[in-house]
Design brief:
mainly alpha; 2 domains; 5 helices; 88% helix; flat
Length: 131
């Protein structure tokens, strides 16, 4: 494990397992869509090896590929290292910024509401004049 500590390695492996689960889920969803779209494929989808085996195989193959690929491991380790350098705001700062954003959203919503109200009335007035 040159250049990465055990914590990086654990995070990387958990991430790879997560990617594998996502790949299996995507494969299962694609197979369900194919089965519901094409009648002949639904015959194959009813088989357990297709319904459960192919998504599991896709996840396992992705995991093995990610673990076996040195470039992918190096990239993942570098990403973890960069994320570890991020300085996250304190709870006080997060709360203050959340309040500021909420106030700005409320002001913007009120301004859009006022604009909508007046523009609706102007359009109605124009429509009444032309009709």
């Amino acid at each position: 494990m040159q250049g990465m500590d055990k914590t990086h390695h654990k995070i990387m492996m958990v991430s790879f397992v997560g990617f594998a689960f996502i790949a299996g889920y995507v494969m299962r969803t694609m197979l369900e869509v194919l089965a519901s779209t094409f009648g002949f494929f639904s015959l194959y989808y009813d088989m357990d090896i297709v319904k459960h085996g192919m998504p599991a195989l896709a996840g396992i193959l992705l995991f093995v590929y990610l673990v076996a690929s040195k470039s992918k491991r190096i990239w993942a380790s570098e990403v973890i290292g960069e994320v570890a350098k991020v300085v996250w705001p304190s709870k006080k700062d997060t709360t203050a910024l959340t309040i500021v954003v909420t106030i700005i959203i409320l002001i913007a919503g009120a301004m859009l509401g006022v604009f909508d109200f007046f523009s609706k009335n102007i359009i109605n007035l124009i429509m009444d004049i032309t009709i």
